[in-house]
Amino acid sequence: MAAWSDLTNDVLEHITSFLAFPDHYRFGAVCKNWRSVSKRRRYPPAPQLPWLVLEEEKETRKRKFYSLSDAKHYFIEIPELHGRYICGSSHGWLFAIDIKINGILVNPFTRESYELPPFPAFSDDTDVTTLVDKLPSDYTEGPRNGTFEEMRIKIVFKAILSHDPKEKSDFTAMIMFGCMRTPAFWRPGDLCWTVVDGPECSMQDIVYFKGNFYVLSPSNVVYVMDFESEPKLIEVIGPQLDIERCPFERYLIDFNGNLLLIKRFCEYEYDDDDDDDEEEEEEEEELIVTVGFDVMEPNLEENILFERSNIGDFALFLGRNCSIYVNSSHFLKCKRNGIYFTHTTYSFSAEKFGCHDLGVFDMTNMTVSKFYPVEVFPPLVGSPVWFTPNPW
């Protein structure tokens, strides 16, 4: 009987086509011959469920990831992410901001990266470049609730890409920045971000769909990005008021060739903080908790929204990332007709409890459950972000 190490390279390469990203490294650890085959990377990794990008380990500075497929944590040395806040993910790339408000776009596994230009003014009276110029040259970190620490959390609400930069070099990066979540874009070679003219309201989400960027407003207005002459937003779906209940957040997603609008509903729960001194009054802390979602499908031709009762065999992954969907029937540990979500807001509850609001909403029985062990994330480090590894 032939030894495993004697399998032909053709057979071994075929085996690698069925392996998820972490299994390629386990495969290469078997023996010298297998390691040689794994390094050729003839096949891309097999599809897997999204990972969560978590915080940086303080002692080792390694970035912590959580793989939903095998329910394991991975600690990976990625110097480009040292001390950086993750504000978005798209096509396997991460948008990251350091303490001096410098932004980069990086593929954490290929180590390819792009330096991003200074972000637009944070508000009418707060210009990022002016503030950073006042920093000492040896400044590395500020107080937990200081101006710069807070600014890098709030300056970019979301960031996405039109294409994978490895496949198309003339991609477009879009961000929603500042208190009003104003859209702005950048392309490789540009010296600055271009701010897009639009309505003065706090935008909710942005998505790249069928060759165009679409932006969503708080009144469920859907706009398409017009890049001709002066970039601006053009309304394609008129206002659709939420009469019965108001969503906490809204998302747009390219769902299997269809555009979906997702509404997220939250409630406030209260934590009783009993003080040892009986004379002091008991304080209640607010805790934001997700309780459900509604799924709508915009009809861009008829200018209306249709409600969907389910998403069938699929699962959605929503948060600060470019929204993701997968076919749950391809994965053992994925909830069918489910919406996985992460904590995406910064509030007083996040300051005390950390980014606690992670879970999965089952559209079949309308319940919320946990997919991740209860863990309090350090405040102001940033919300966990969904991420699809794109290692080669």
Question: Can you tell me the overall shape?
Answer: globular
Question: Number of folding domains?
Answer: 2
Number of strands: 25
Query: Radius of gyration from the CA trace?
Result: 22 Å
Q: What is the CATH fold-level name of the largest domain?
A: Neuraminidase
Q: Can you tell me the residue ranges where pLDDT is under 50 for at least 5 consecutive residues?
A: 138-146, 276-282
Approximate helicity band: 10-25%
Mean pLDDT: 82
Question: Going across the major beta sheet, what is the strand order?
Answer: 21-20-22-23-24
CATH architecture of the largest domain: 6 Propeller
Domain F-box: 4-41
Organism: Rhynchospora breviuscula
Domain KIB1-4 beta-propeller: 65-362
Protein name: F-box domain-containing protein
How is this fold's topology laid out?
Blueprint: H1 9-16, H2 21-28, H3 32-40, E1 51-56, E2 63-67, E3 72-76, E4 85-90, E5 93-97, E6 103-106, E7 113-115, H4 128-133, H5 147-154, E8 156-161, E9 173-177, E10 182-186, E11 194-195, E12 205-209, E13 212-216, E14 222-226, E15 232-237, E16 249-255, E17 258-273, E18 283-299, E19 304-308, E20 314-318, E21 324-327, E22 338-341, H6 348-353, E23 359-362, E24 367-369, E25 385-387
Parallel strand pairs: 20-22
Antiparallel strand pairs: 1-2, 1-25, 2-3, 4-5, 5-6, 6-7, 8-9, 9-10, 10-11, 12-13, 13-14, 14-15, 16-17, 17-18, 18-19, 20-21, 22-23, 23-24
